[in-house]
Amino acid sequence: MEYKQLGHSGLRVPVLSFGTATFGGGNEFFKAWGNTEVEEATRMVHLCLDAGVNLFDTANVYSTGIAEERLGKAISGVRNKVLVSTKATFPMSDDVNDYGSSRFHLIKACEDSLKRLGTDHIDIYHMHGFDANTPVEETLNALNQQVQSGKVHYIACSNFSGWHLMKSLSVSERYGWSRYIAQQSYYSLLNRDFEWELMPLGVDQKVGTIIWSPLASGKLSGKYRRNQPFPKDARVAQGGSPVLHGAGDDERLYTIIEVLDELEKETGKTIAQLSLNWLLQRPTVCSIIIGARNEEQLKQNLGAVGWSLSVDQIKRLDKASEVLPAYPYWHQRQFPMLHAAAELYGGR
Questions:
Q1: Annotated catalytic residue: which of 3, 62, 224, 254?
Q2: SS3 category, 340
Q3: Better-scored residue on pLDDT, 295 or 145
Q4: Domain range holding 328?
Q5: Closest CA to 64 of 99, 101, 40
Q6: Which of 60, 18, 65 has its CA nearest to residue 43?
Q7: Phi, psi angles (nearest 5°) of residue 37
Q8: Is the Cβ–Cβ distance between 75 and 104 less than 8 Å?
Q9: Poorest-confidence range of 126-135, 201-210, 296-305?
């Protein structure tokens, strides 16, 4: 397993990490992801550790806390060998203060996560989304206090826009508080919006990236093909996927899959492994969260490391997955001499 420094920190993380949204299946949305119970979750944790994957990602909102509970039991006895990442911000109940990034909510959310996980600290604590109703200073001060207390070791964010993240970094610098060392973002061959602003920001500010949904809710698994109906047993068909991933752009998906089919024959790697390996070559990407409904799926995903696509193969995937960015990014691309690093725009 390869390890990378996570952003502007001393923490080293594996390039593959394991996501636990499949643990528990506590409601209809997450049942479509999976319903892994403690016994199988424990086996998966040890499979990961045997492969060098020691970072496990979860969130309080996953099955309303059940995923954290399952993970806590699965890592019992090996807590000193693993890194735990969890998140807060989204609603946990109908209570008016049981969501957001206020000091009131974060203190309670952190304590609740620690209890469910059965641990005394969280290694990486993410704000799951940006709370525009709470002053950034309040959020970061509360997080800095959690770091100072030892309950949290590092802080990160997820699903922020560029200005959300840049403002947060500026506030942390102004007051000397802990800063976000990483951003957890959606990025895949099917959706490359991350490259427009968040990737250049990450390079400039030394913010590492942890990728969620690298296979676009399974659309890059090889199950989706031209002139074939969508698989009925997939997460998308069962309502377990947010409305994203280039929805409605099926023609582009099929074009990408056709190139992946060619590379599968050339390399002997699966379509999913190729899709993951392409991400590992991108700037700022430190770790990719892989999920699995079962142990066999997990073993297949672990095969995405230990080898690399060639420069030519990467260019072919770049071309197949290319999409015109929104303004002002398409305008900026017309003046490459003004860019500090051409690779931030896919080398074009």
A1: 62
A2: coil
A3: 145
A4: 3-345
A5: 99
A6: 18
A7: -95, 180
A8: no
A9: 296-305
Domain count, the chain: 1
Q: What is the DSSP letter of 131?
A: -
Please report the beta strands in 187-241, taking only residues with DSSP state E, as ranges in sequence order.
208-212
- Residue (of 246, 266, 268, 242) closest to 256 by Cα position: 246
Find the CATH number of the domain harbouring 117: 3.20.20.100
* 8 Å CB contact between 16 and 302: yes
Q: For 299-332, how does the pLDDT look when each residue is reduced to its tens digit (9 = 90+)?
A: 999 999 999 999 999 999 999 999 888 999 989 8
Helices 311-321, 271-280: axis angle to 10 degrees equals: 100
Cβ(88)–Cβ(113) under 8 Å? yes
Does 204 score more than 70 pLDDT?
yes
C-alpha to C-alpha distance for 289 and 29, rounded to whole angstroms = 19
12 bridge partner residues: 5
- Read off the amino acid at residue 194: F
Residue 175 annotated among the catalytic residues of the structure = no
Cα–Cα distance between 43 and 153 in angstroms, integer? 27
